[in-house]
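Researcher: Good morning. I'm working through a list of sequences from a screen, and I'd like to move beyond sequence-only analysis. For each chain I'm collecting a predicted structure so we can compare shapes side by side. This is the next one on the list. No need for commentary yet; just the structure.
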Amino acid sequence: MKAQQYVPIIVLRKIKLFFIRIKDIVTLFKSGLISEASCYPELPRKSKASRAFQLLWYLLKYGEILWQYNLYGLDVKPFKAMDEYIGNKELMWREFEYNILRAKNDYTNIMRDKRLFYLFLRANGFNTPAVFAYSKDGVIYPFGWRMTGEWDVDSIPVDSFLKKTGRYFCKPYNGKCGRGIFILQVSDEIKINGEVVDQEHAIDFLSSAFKDEYIIQDVLVQHPEMSALNPSSVNTIRIITGRNKKTKQVEFITGFLRIGGKKSMTDNMAGGGMAVGIDFETGYLKHYGYFFADGGSRRIEEHPELKIPLETIQVPHLKEAIQTSIELHEKLDDLQIIGWDVAVTEDSVSFIEGNDSPGLSQSNHGPKRRVIDQYI
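Model: Good morning. Structure tokens for this chain:
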């Protein structure tokens, strides 16, 4: 988009932020954020009045509530400058501005359209789970090389699909946060998310689910060490890469490991999982992980099931995951910043998704302004 076209959008945003400030002052004091329990109870905490003043100051200056105030340890002593941290709204605006408004070509569809993402990666030689069918309005359609040789038809009825032995990972076409995903297993019996169901129930379930747009993929088999962290979900590395505004080179910015909650199909925090920072020199996890509970963020030092310190866990193929993410980002020259969800397999890595608006708050230390300024 040309510069003169996005100037009015910037002006409208500034006007909108003015009115949001007024509304959010009320929201701040009603939300309970000021009284929320600290993530760092071992450290001396600032007074409630001091915390309220800091949050109000940030709101008036930047036009948003810094919801990660306690997660970032800004509520405790010693003093940290709140100016160093970017809130969600400002971060999302920057991502939108640089990935869409300033871009010559809008490549965000490759990130958001799961079929395009699969085709783009396969065309460029990157690993990603095969997409071999998709659904729309209750009908299943073959897609890609896998199904075309096996199904000489334009569409597949649900009852016919249930005659094909296999394990299928099904997720909404434009879904977020793992909502609506399920695993279908067809053999001597039919299982949905591990639960045995009869054919009538399976047909009803799939007919209802597939009224929405879904993609149907191979089930990825993750590295045994990653599976041990939570076998019910694919536990991915979120890797953030950015194109440096000065050098125009793609660089690794930061990342963290996502671990699903017990029996959860997803590994994100919204679905009960946790995020743990990584020491990218050694590949070991950092001392603390974070998860949502009781309306706020909570800290954890050991794996809840394995009962071992998080910092004793090492991520396999980490350097390969980082380097491959950089190489893939280099193929998308009009995207400034991307968050990659990278799965680790026995021998390599595989890309699950790309995000053109990756939240950075789960990286434990938040999006530091001086770092983000280099990219967006």
